[in-house]
Design goal:
This protein is mainly alpha-helical. The protein has eleven helices and two strands. Helices cover 67% and strands 3% of the residues. It has a two-stranded antiparallel ribbon with strand order 1-2. α4 packs across α5. The longest helix has 30 residues. GO terms for molecular function: calcium ion binding.
Length: 214
């Protein structure tokens, strides 16, 4: 009976937590006022028709009008079933979530997708730098680069060519970091990142992986 009582209490607490989470979510939805399509047309690189189609799809996946990180990861996983995309999705979510409130509005979703799918090389490289600069301090450390590269390899799974292990990821990071850390101070600045990408075609081509975000 003790085990059964404990289980009942556990479920009761879970339901209470879900109710509390639902109340928080409802409050967010009440406050959420999507911008007009004309405004998003001006801000993004999508047409009004494209935005209408995207919004219908967005609302179908996320009826509340906002996406939390777990839902974002679930959506991501559908596109990368061959590997574990959860870590990479976490980092991408953070680059989309500009106000750092733990959820994505349709506007944030559209603006992030606009840069990745139709942004200029400059815009996409800026996005990539922000992705690697995990703590947002304006520098990329070797540990940060390792975290992102490892997340990409985990996401690509068995379709990575050649097959990748932990040592391969480390060697890749060591090689790229050495190229980018031009003044050898142990961190990569935005200027160093941009300069290296512009003069190294192989690195620039590597940015194509970001086209597969969604």
């Amino acid at each position: 009976m003790d085990a059964l009582t404990s289980w009942i209490n556990l479920k009761r607490n879970e339901f209470k937590k879900k109710d509390h989470d639902l109340e928080d979510l409802e409050m967010q939805v009440v406050r959420y006022k999507p911008e007009g399509l004309d405004v998003l047309c001006r801000k993004s690189k999508f047409t009004r028709k494209e935005l209408q189609i995207m919004y219908r799809g967005f609302k179908q996946e996320c009826p509340t009008g906002i996406v939390n990180e777990e839902t974002f990861k679930e959506i991501y996983a559908q596109f990368f079933p061959q590997g574990d995309s959860s870590a990479y999705a976490h980092y991408v979510f953070n680059t989309f979530d500009h106000d750092r409130n733990g959820s994505l509005s349709f506007e944030e979703f559209v603006m992030g997708l606009s840069v990745l799918s139709r942004g200029t090389l400059q815009e996409r490289l800026q996005w990539a730098f922000n992705l690697y600069d995990i703590n947002g301090d304006g520098f990329i450390t070797k540990d940060e680069m390792t975290d992102i590269v490892s997340a990409i390899y985990e996401m690509m799974g068995r379709f990575s060519e050649p097959m990748i292990d932990e040592n391969t990821a480390k060697e890749h990071v060591d090689r790229v970091f050495l190229k980018m850390d031009i003044n050898r101070d142990g961190v990569i600045t935005f200027d160093e990142f941009m300069e290296t990408c512009r003069r190294d075609e192989n690195i620039t081509k590597g940015m194509a992986i970001f086209d597969t975000v969604l």
